[in-house]
Design brief:
Strand order of the largest sheet: 2-1-3-4
CATH topology of the largest domain: Glutathione S-transferase Yfyf (Class Pi), Chain A, domain 2
Structural class: alpha+beta
Helix content: 55-70%
Number of helices: 9
Radius of gyration: 18 Å
Largest sheet: 4 strands, mixed
Bound molecules: glutathione
Number of domains: 2
């Protein structure tokens, strides 16, 4: 189990989040990558997701978000940048061959830049503005963008197990991004549903999820 208070790598995570966000916070991606390659990390648990972050945290993460990754003199923010850094250390996450490596990086950026924004819009609308009379029409307007991206992604994946040639940080981020898709929207694409199941059944994902949830459970127990 890579969570180890003596580890040289530190990642930030929240002490507590609302139930709908448990298992969804983006430190999960970093935990998952570190679990895949067996690198230990320690946790720096910070206040709740909606709390103002102190100036010292904003110096590490200008937007006040998690995760932040520290290792010696290195401080990284943005889950994509952190995953690239971790991938550099192990070819099980980022191939050394220039062609395969370029494809994996392209898919990582596609996940964050082309797919996640369409799904994130739906998530934001679904958890905010419930009392606003424009919410349903805003969701109706946003949904086709996400549906189109999922259809394009399903076509690109085809019958392969992973998005390119072997599991990589491109798959890791893409699968975590797809976990935020509305259930019915993802179910319309059996190949994407199977892709997400394939990723989330990896033992490293299971350990990462358990570690994130353990932090919240310890907080509710008053630890
Ligand atoms: N683009 C950032 C997004 C990080 C992010 O959205 N973090 C959320 C939790 S999943 C957060 O801390 N939100 C608090 C806020 O935005 O104030 C990344 O990939 O690291």
């Amino acid at each position: 189990m890579p969570v180890n208070p003596d580890a040289s790598i530190e990642i930030t995570a929240y002490k507590w989040v609302p139930p709908f966000a448990e298992g969804r916070i983006k430190d999960l991606r970093v935990r998952w990558a570190l679990e895949e390659i067996g690198r230990p990390y320690r946790e720096r648990l910070i206040g709740g997701i909606f709390e103002e972050k102190p100036a010292e945290y904003l110096a590490d993460q200008p937007f006040g978000q998690v995760p932040v990754y520290k290792e010696g003199a290195l401080t990284l923010f943005e889950s994509g940048a952190i995953l690239l850094h971790i991938g550099e250390q192990d070819e099980r996450l980022l191939p050394r061959d220039a062609v395969r490596r370029g494809r994996a990086i392209s898919w990582l950026v596609a996940a964050l830049n082309s797919v996640e924004p369409t799904l994130q819009t739906l998530v934001v609308l679904s958890v905010t503005g419930a009392e606003q009379n424009w919410r349903e029409s805003a969701m109706d307007a946003a949904r086709p963008f996400a549906e189109k991206r999922l259809a394009q992604l399903a076509r690109a994946l085809g019958d392969r197990d992973w998005i390119d040639d072997g599991f990589s940080i491109g798959d890791l981020i893409m699968i975590d991004v797809l976990r935020a898709a509305p259930t019915a929207m993802l179910a319309a694409h059996p190949k994407l549903t199977a892709y997400v199941e394939r990723g989330t059944q990896r033992p490293a994902f299971g350990r990462a999820l358990a570690a994130q949830l353990a932090a919240y459970a310890n907080h509710s127990k008053g630890d």
